Amino acid sequence: MTTQKSVGAASPTYDVIIAGAGPVGLFLACELRLADVSVLMLEQSADPSSPLKRLPFGMRGLTIPTMEAFYRRGLLDDIVKDNPASIKSLGLQPGKQAGHFAGITFSYSDFDSSKWEYRLPNPADTNIAAELERVEKTLAERALAVGVEIRRGVTVSGFSRSDDDMVTVDTIAKSEEEEFRGKWLVGCDGGRSTIRKVGGFEFVGTEPEFTGYSAKVELAADSEPLPPGKNNTSRGMYSLAPSGQLVMADFDGGAHHREEVTLEHLQSVLRRISGINATLATVHVATTWTDRSAQATTYRKGSVFLAGDAAHIHSPLGGQGLNLGIGDAMNLGWKLAATIHGRAPGGLLDTYTTERHPIGQRVLDWSRAQVAVMRPGQASRALEAIFRDIMQTRDGATYFAERVLGVSLRYDLGSGHPLVGRSAPDFELMREGGGMTVGKLLELGMGLLVDFDSRRELQQLFPKRWTNGIEYLAGEPKERLGLSVLLIRPDGIVAWVCEGQLDIDEFLTAARCWFGAENWIVSRQKEA
Ligand SMILES: Cc1cc2nc3c(=O)[nH]c(=O)nc-3n(C[C@H](O)[C@H](O)[C@H](O)COP(=O)(O)OP(=O)(O)OC[C@H]3O[C@@H](n4cnc5c(N)ncnc54)[C@H](O)[C@@H]3O)c2cc1C
Predict the structure, then answer these.
(1) What does the alpha-carbon distance between residue 223 and residue 278 come to, in Å, rounded to a whole number?
(2) Per-residue pLDDT of the chain (528 residues; tens, 9 = 90+)
(3) Residue 525 burial by Cβ neighbours in a 10 Å radius (0-12, 13-18, 19+)
(4) How many whole angstroms separate alpha carbon 382 and alpha carbon 27?
(5) Who's near 205: CB < 8 A, 6+ residues apart?
(6) Whose CA is nearest to atom 15 of ligand 1?
């Protein structure tokens, strides 16, 4: 094959090049554009649509941190709107299934959300099921609207760093090679990430125990019937929904992953696992997956980052991968933008790995624990019975809900106050003509200093409403949860709180730690 190489000397240099326009890459691109950073996305698929991104296989559970991320960027309505899978009216749904652990389900009425003392009701305060294709479409529309350049049908084949601290990205599209230059490169190119491999990122984890199958099938009229619900057997697990959705876990060490899935193969696996002489008439679509789990030991090497599945892979059990990736993007976007604009405090970019790696590790272990419960054999059935008992207690269900819904997420920011490192409650500041919520205020992508007691010392520090990358807001909240002042990062994470006596030095230390130099005035400030 002959290829033509066009060297991108004449092409523009981008602040950031993102490999992969999946949900994580697209959301990150929106985050960077929000902060006036130029972004080029390179995506290998010419067509973003695929049957595997549509229902039933394309169903993705979105947890509360993801819902909050979309809410805080004004995307939530579009994600929910016209989404065939999503729950139309938000708000916790008593009696409905809220989640599961290894297939053991719990409902919204099983757990006690009043224990989550620093949460306030808000439009994003529930998990939903959403169709992946719709989520990607919404994010792509936003990305294009804010000026992200997306090139589809372009495969990233490698990259190199040049002496002038730039990254040159090698691509191939329709047999033509082309190079693109950027200051920073982020690999959002999925589980088999080229950026991770070429960049020499160490990727460590555990090998698969099973091949998972998701298929849409029809049983033959004369087939032996299968029992409803999830069934664990001595060979694995299977469930066949009335809609024809078949899910199986065949504990074969992941041997059949990425092999062709014929009707005959699917039927023989189903018969082997179930021990029932089931006959399939039709297989409409089928895909495989495994419980292989692995994580990059660092998410950054110099000017190259990993985010989403490129940084961590695990089984889809309990559906956390997309949520983990959106969390990566929300965490990285504002830090990288602040660095590009030259206003980041020292070490800010390294906090991307130190904050996100432990969260990823927790999710990987959560999925591994489910595999231990799902394994065929007596020991796992005994474990399953114990987990079921625990989940039937209120405290047990509350623990599982915290993990599955994502409300237990907390970064270790080194402060003792329970709210620091957690998602900010959606305080509503009372205003004439209607309140202003923290979620809406975060849409500009700035940090927030929310002062419920209109303190003079703080007002003096903020001669303008936007100072040092922080928007200052004073006002009485509808509910204050015992707090007086909060410093909130652009990703909605609480960086500092004051409950009563204000220690201005303590505030300045926190502000410098996350927002850098005191006298810096945001260039893109938009006066009210
Ligand atoms: C059956 C199943 C069910 C799941 N359910 C859930 C769930 O309920 N909740 C949840 O949170 N997660 C779930 N997940 C996981 C979730 O889908 C992934 O974690 C998520 O899609 C990862 O997003 P990403 O953008 O990091 O990667 P991807 O979605 O894999 O996107 C990567 C993009 O990069 C492109 N690309 C790859 N290589 C290159 C290259 N060399 N050059 C250019 N482009 C490239 C790809 O074409 C793709 O568009 C599930 C996964 C499966 C398989």
Answers:
(1) 5
(2) 334 455 554 567 999 999 999 999 999 999 999 999 999 999 999 999 998 898 888 889 999 999 999 999 999 999 988 776 665 444 445 567 889 999 899 998 999 999 998 999 999 988 888 999 999 999 999 999 999 999 999 999 999 998 788 999 999 999 899 999 999 999 999 999 999 999 999 999 999 999 999 999 999 999 999 998 889 898 999 999 998 999 999 999 999 887 889 999 999 999 999 999 999 999 998 999 999 999 999 999 999 999 999 999 999 887 799 999 999 999 999 999 999 999 899 999 999 999 999 999 999 999 999 999 999 999 999 999 999 999 999 999 999 999 999 999 999 998 789 999 999 999 999 987 788 999 999 999 999 999 999 999 999 888 777 777 899 999 999 999 999 999 999 999 999 999 989 999 999 999 999 998 654 444 333 433
(3) middle
(4) 42
(5) 292, 293, 294, 295, 313, 364
(6) 321
Distance 525 CA to ligand 1 centre (A): 35
Which residues does a 6 A CB cutoff place in the pocket of ligand 1?
19-25, 42-45, 57, 60-61, 155-156, 188-190, 194, 214, 289, 308-309, 316, 319-323, 325
Amino acid in position 397 = A
CA–centroid distance, 23 to ligand 1, in Å, is 7
Q: Which of 167, 132, 137, 165 is nearest to 150 (CA)?
A: 137
